Amino acid sequence: MGVPLYQAKAELFKTLGHPARIRILELLSERDHAVHELLEKISIEPSNLSQQLGVLRRTQLVTSNRSGGAVVYSIAVPEVRDLLLAGRQILGQLAAQQSQLSAELAGAQESTAD
Amino acid sequence: MGVPLYQAKAELFKTLGHPARIRILELLSERDHAVHELLEKISIEPSNLSQQLGVLRRTQLVTSNRSGGAVVYSIAVPEVRDLLLAGRQILGQLAAQQSQLSAELAGAQESTAD
DNA sequence: ACATGACTTGCGAAACTCTTCATCTCAAGT
DNA sequence: ACTTGAGATGAAGAGTTTCGCAAGTCATGT
C-alpha cells in the first residue's frame, strides 16, 4: 500500500495541529457552516481561513459545496468528533496531574491528605 | 488560565504529528520500553530518538526513569491509547471512502452495484 | 454590462521543525 | 582512575508552515 501506516497517522495528527483548524472542526462537528459564518466565530483573515479550509479539504476531513452565493463546509468523517473528544480528555488528564503535582509540592509533608 | 483551550489542543495534536513520535507512543502503549529497545524497533539515529523522546517528555505524555544503566520510558496518560485508536479509525474511514470513490469512477454507469 | 459580496489562490517574508553532528553526563565494569 | 555503553543536549543547515497582501473567480442584484 505504499505509505507506512504510522506515517499516515502522523500526517492526520499534523493536520489537526493548528488552532484555527481545531476550531473549524469543532464548529463543523456541531453543524455545517458557511465560510462567512466561520469567519464571524474565528477571528482570522479571510484568506487565512480559506487556506486552513484548503488543508482540511485536501486531507478529506471536510467537504464543501456551494449553495448560491455561499460555500458551505461539512465534516466528511464523523469519527473526527471522537478524536476531538479524546484530545479533550487527555488535556483534562494532563491538567489534573499538573494540579495534583502542585498540591503535593505545596503541602509536601502531608501524607496523601484528606 | 491563560492559554485558550483550542490552542492547547492544537499543541497536543502537533506533538503527535511526527512518525517517530507516533511509533514511540504505540510501542509504549503496549508496554514500557528502555531507550535501546525503542532504538531496535524504530530505525532512526539515537540522538534523533532522544530528541523525539524529549518532545514527548516535555508535553508530559511520557515519563522516564533510570533503571541502572538503562532509561525506561512509560506512557504517562493512559488515554493516549484512545487517541491513537481514534486516529486509526479515521484513517480506516478515509481509506474506505477513497476506495468507494474509485469503485464508483470505475463502474460509472452502474447503479450502486452489487 | 457592472458592481458587490463571498471566497480562493499565488506569492514572499518570518517563524518554526527536523535531522545530524559534536559534545557531555551518568552508571557499571576493570 | 579509566573505559565503555546508554542517553541527553546544543547548535546549525535544510526544509516546511504560517500569515497577510494583492489579484482572481463566481454568483447575485441592479
Automatic annotation (TrEMBL), chains A, B:
Q: What CDD domains would the database entry show? A: HTH_ARSR
> Boundaries of each HTH arsR-type domain copy?
1-95
GO molecular function term, any single one? DNA-binding transcription factor activity
Q: Which SUPFAM superfamilies match?
A: Winged helix' DNA-binding domain
**From the record, what ranges are coiled-coil?**
none
Entry's NCBIfam families? HTH_metalloreg (NF033788)
Which named protein is this? ArsR family transcriptional regulator
Q: Which organism is it from?
A: Nocardioides jejuensis
